[in-house]
Design goal:
CATH topology of the largest domain in chain B: Rossmann fold
Number of strands of chain B: 9
CATH superfamily of the largest domain in chain B: P-loop containing nucleotide triphosphate hydrolases
Distance between the termini of chain B: 32 Å
Order of helices and strands of chain A: HHHHHHHHH
Largest sheet of chain B: 6 strands, mixed
Oligomer: heterodimer
Strand content of chain A: under 5%
Shape of chain A: globular
Number of helices of chain A: 9
Largest sheet of chain A: none
Shape of chain B: globular
Strand content of chain B: 25-35%
């Protein structure tokens, strides 16, 4: 069987079609566009939204907030992760901070951020707080998994500490960093949109979801 | 000139590895330390390299000496090519790129200069580590059983590569092994170590005509028998 039509791909396609069929069946059962719109009416509405004036500003600003949050969490996450991974004392210091951030419900952070920041900053702050612990923890794990023999080889050849970080640690932790960033972005986008729903900046996916919900009533 | 280690004392908890131990190593020769596993051969290298502290010792002739190391494993950076791995250790040292090319040629890896370690065999990777050790402007090269993980054919190839490069650049080499054949093929001087606490049971100096890369010579066979008897 060719690669395009491999067994697993067919099963995936079938599963997707089944999902759409189930969606249609349930929408027919409820017969209400408010409770569960049909797949075809959803598709039509999607095109209408894309063609609306607010679509690109909303998408653009949500994405921009995500990028800013990701960039900040990436820079700080990698920087502090390297420090914590190479220094046990700093790792011990950072650990409770990371645990606290990760275990605090996102909604509590949003409610606090609404008091502390302007509306446009809230989703960025939440994105940062959501993504930073993932990236930082993954970097720390990556550093601890670096082959100690390579580090010892570099020290034997009197390579400077900064070059060891740049040319041994950083390349070694790259898979961990990208894995952390990938997980982080999954949670991060959700957090941004929840943040927009609650803080209601002028343009944003969350803002328009909240408006749409209001107009349903 | 001689490099001397005098009155070396080193213990690990209750175990005395070295007790008032003395050894003299000739510069610009390949000195082989032959002994059973666990007798302290690697510890001696690590004391010379300052990665382990002796309890007490006097090291003469080692002051300001730069050391490079050939480990048991090649320890190449997987994300750098052959050439980049060698350049990694000599960056910022005012050494020309031609030096790297020269040593890559000497280990016969010029066709693989832009290959990553994952694309090389075990023997080829170890040749890169040999080239790296020689490209580094060291005064002393320490070798810790670098042929241990290799099969006989690869070992012989590597010994050949090493001797070719050493003929070109006769640095002081201290080479540790538990394999008599390796010692006979590579060493100019062979120190036979006892178990801990270490003493030098005997020392052999091979003439240059000895080590012309064959163990079948009667002199080599006789020497091997002598060494075996001493090690037993």
């Amino acid at each position: 069987m060719s690669k395009v039509f491999s067994k697993n791909r067919i099963i995936t396609l079938f599963s997707t079609l089944l999902l759409i069929v189930a969606w249609k069946v349930v929408s027919l059962v409820y017969q209400s566009e408010f409770i569960l719109p049909s797949p075809e009416s959803t598709l039509i509405s999607t095109f209408k939204i894309i063609l609306s004036d607010n679509f690109f500003p909303a998408i653009g600003l949500t994405v921009l907030r995500g990028i800013i949050g990701l960039a900040a969490s990436f820079i700080l996450g990698v920087g502090l992760g390297i420090l914590a991974g190479t220094n046990e004392t700093f790792n011990a210091f950072l650990k409770p901070i990371l645990v606290t951030i990760r275990s605090t419900p996102v909604i509590s952070l949003i409610l606090l951020a609404l008091i502390w920041f302007k509306v446009d900053m809230v989703p960025i702050f939440i994105a940062f707080l959501t993504m930073f612990p993932f990236i930082c923890t993954n970097v720390i794990d990556g550093i601890k998994n670096v082959d100690k023999e390579l580090v010892q080889m570099a020290k034997t050849y009197r390579i400077s500490h900064w070059r060891i970080i740049r040319e041994v640690y950083l390349p070694a932790i790259t898979p961990f960093v990208f894995s952390g960033a990938s997980s982080a972005m999954g949670f991060g986008w959700r957090a941004i949109i929840i943040g927009e729903v609650l803080s209601q900046p002028k343009y944003g996916i969350g803002t328009f979801m909240q408006s749409a919900q209001t107009f349903i009533g | 000139m001689l490099l001397k280690i005098r009155n070396l004392n080193k213990s690990y908890q209750e175990n005395k590895l070295f007790e008032n131990f003395n050894i003299e190593i000739k510069e610009n020769t390949i000195s082989c330390i032959l002994g059973p596993s666990g007798c302290g051969k690697t510890t001696l290298l690590n004391i010379i390299n300052h990665t382990v502290n002796a309890d007490s010792a006097i090291l003469e002739g080692f002051e300001n000496k730069i050391i490079s190391y050939i480990f048991q494993e090649p320890r190449l950076l997987p994300w750098k090519t052959v050439k980049e791995n060698i350049s990694f250790v000599i960056k910022n040292l005012d050494i020309k790129e031609e030096t790297v090319d020269k040593y890559i040629r000497l280990v016969e890896l010029e066709k693989f200069a832009n290959y990553y370690p994952s694309k090389l065999s075990g023997g080829m990777r170890q040749r890169v580590s040999i080239a790296r050790a020689f490209a580094y402007p060291s005064d002393i090269i320490l070798m810790d059983e670098p042929l241990k993980a290799l099969d006989i054919k690869l070992k012989l190839n590597l010994i050949k590569s090493f001797k070719r490069i050493w003929q070109f650049d006769k640095r002081t080499v201290v080479f540790v092994t538990h394999d008599i054949d390796e010692a006979l093929l590579l060493g100019n001087e062979i120190f036979v170590f006892s178990k801990a606490p270490v003493i030098i049971k005997d020392k052999f100096t091979l003439s240059s005509s000895f080590s012309d890369f064959t163990l079948e010579k009667p002199e080599m066979i006789s020497l091997k028998k002598q060494i075996l008897k001493i090690m037993d």
